[in-house]
Amino acid sequence: SQQGEEDPQALSIQEGENATMNCSYKTSINNLQWYRQNSGRGLVHLILIRSNEREKHSGRLRVTLDTSKKSSSLLITASRAADTASYFCATPLGKAGGTSYGKLTFGQGTILTVHP
Amino acid sequence: NAGVTQTPKFQVLKTGQSMTLQCAQDMNHNSMYWYRQDPGMGLRLIYYSASEGTTDKGEVPNGYNVSRLNKREFSLRLESAAPSQTSVYFCASSDLRGEAFFGQGTRLTVV
Fold it and tell me: In which band, very low, low, confident or very high, does the pLDDT at B109 lie, cut at 50, 70 and 90?
């Protein structure tokens, strides 16, 4: 069963605007990851946030994690047409912990379209 | 530095045929994974290998087998393909920093 659920399923914005995507999950986790997938390509890792972190930044990306609400958000600021892609949150599959960070369960993703 | 390489990129099989999807990584990662991605379903883990010599089932292992040939290579075999196995298959490997690296995918159609 899939743990993460992204919201919205699709988001369409203009270049320069901010894009916010949300992810909810069901069980306790020790980390949460966000990935991007361009059409027809493999997934690219964006950021990992650990359960003891509330917020993390990477360039134009800001990720928050609220473990009490079992939710995370990904904010892309000043979006560009090149940000057009699907965005997935992923949480550890099975027992939290261990070193197999790629053992993940994914949500269905948010399709982001940025219009020039 | 090629990262994770999958072959083939596309494949059409008839029901009942068998095939092996190949995956190799050149990043010296211990852990490797096979996922499938279906429309509207996100990615689901088929099998994984935490280290050379070990393999374990993921969420959807039925109909598949895997082999961790060495540290670099992890193959996925369909013994008797079924239309329900039509999907895009991704291989991945992960490092200890928490980042998983994905291949470009194999688009498999079973008719």
Answer: very high
